[in-house]
Amino acid sequence: MICVMKKIYTIFSLTLLFFTGISCKKVLDLQPTSSFSTNTVWTDPALIQVFVNQIYKESVFAFKDGGFGWGSQTDELYSNFNWCNENTYIMGQATPDNQGSSFPLNYSSTLNYWTTLYSTIQKTNQFFQNVVQADTVGHGAQLNNMKGEVHFLRALCYFELLKRFGGVPLITKVYTVNDNTFNESRATWDQTRDFILTDIAAAAAILPKTYSSADYGKATLGAALALKSRLLLYAASPTYNTSNDASRWQAASDAAKAVIDLGLYSLHGNSTTYNTIFTDFFNSEVIFSRVFSATVQEDRYNTLYRDLSPNGYNGYSAYNVLEQMVEDFDMADGTPFSWATNGANPYQNRDPRFYADILFNGSPFQGRGAQFYEGGLDSKESSLSPWNASKTGYTIRKMVDESYNFNIQPYSACQWVSFRLGEIYLNYAEAQAALGNSGQALLYLNKIRDRAGMPAITATGTALTDAIRHERRIELCFEGHRYFDIRRWGIAEIGSKDGLGITITPTSSANTSFTYKVVTMQKRTWVPSFYYYPIPRKEIQINPNLKQNPNYN
């Protein structure tokens, strides 16, 4: 079960409640041993909180669902085991018929989530319909806060739909078993944006700026404003703002600045402690995160450290970094990497984030250097689970706490950061650059680079926009942004170029010198439909008013 916060996790685990489907008229039929009637739930604030916790669990995606699965459909990553059926997309084989059912705990699912997200939206609508029954005597503040949380979570669900599909039906009613007809049409992209903004505004009017430590993980004002910042940045971007309307860029700028002006957050760590952004829970940079407990195993969620580590450490190498991602990390002096110039020692003198984010041949990790060279402990020729070896010659180091021994216990407490200040700075810089305000754009871009230990950027105009895009690629890698960034910029094809890896051959008996050869390790296919996901066929069969996304049959 998710540990959205320690308090929530305890309540949810003890009650063992699960709220399913649109046909449910009761939560469970009996009480009081392990279940509660509908009337009991909606008159007890503690049980209402359990219901809200389930919405958190279903709407806040993490790790493979929130980041790695998306990165594996771009020029960031290769999915070693195709856990989220990423290959269906990168091979150009996605159709309305092969999306299937996708519940977040089913790690063999796709990332489509149309059905799942609408099921969760049904729960948010059930909440708003039924919470009025609650006895507010002595609990008014608690219930009011939950209303703010659910407005935020519904906005988040609709944003997840918008990212995947574009405009979608906007549902606020609660369907029951008596509803046999579904005829809602899709809203436009802008209408869906405005609907989300309305929920965000409702959440922002209620949610507090901070909580006590017992309630860390709940949505805050900052979380609502951060979602608004991301949404309005998308709305201002070329794909959705074809006329380059400056007012959209101004709205995106204002939304990002509103988060900054809260004064609640600051960049965490420095060039040598960068990874602590993700391993230090609820630190100063984190605006909203999902934390998993180490007390109950949640496959593919709190097995993160094992899943990302190489086979020679008894890890799974689940997601492999592509060579093109490696090459895009600049040299420490800010110049681009080049095999012609830097190829003799390709992993020396790079951007400090390279060492925090990527495990490469020779990288010190858990007491030894990683051995991705041919015949090494972490290679495909290793005697240690070679089927779990990286296919590209790299694995993800970002978010991994290497001090944790997953060989003793495979699951561990870990944090997925949904929103952080570093992203907000880059949102603001991008919007300011689009508005022609180079000074402000450079100020916030260089705050990120200074924390990373990289030299300042001085570019203007188109070169500044390119620099900001490059910085997003590096600073936010593997966090789920790249897939949607290249779509909102109108350059999605770049993510479908063939996946590259590295072959490393020792040239000394001591395995201390090597030659390097860039190789194509995965052929990929671009298809025009891949700007959006397909709506599952079964949903269109249920509701004939749904119009399929372009270029799907």
From TrEMBL:
For this protein, the record's InterPro entries field holds:
SusD-like_N (IPR033985), SusD_RagB_dom (IPR012944), TPR-like_helical_dom_sf (IPR011990)
- Every copy of the SusD-like N-terminal domain together lies at 71-233
- How far does the signal peptide extend, from start to end residue? none
Q: For this UniProt record, give its keywords in alphabetical order, as a comma-separated list.
A: Cell outer membrane, Membrane, Signal
Q: Which residues form the RagB/SusD domain?
A: 285-552
Localization per Swiss-Prot or TrEMBL: Cell outer membrane
Is Membrane set as a keyword in this record? Answer: yes
Sequence similarity: Belongs to the SusD family.
Q: What is this protein called?
A: RagB/SusD family nutrient uptake outer membrane protein
Q: Please tell me the species this chain comes from.
A: Mucilaginibacter dorajii
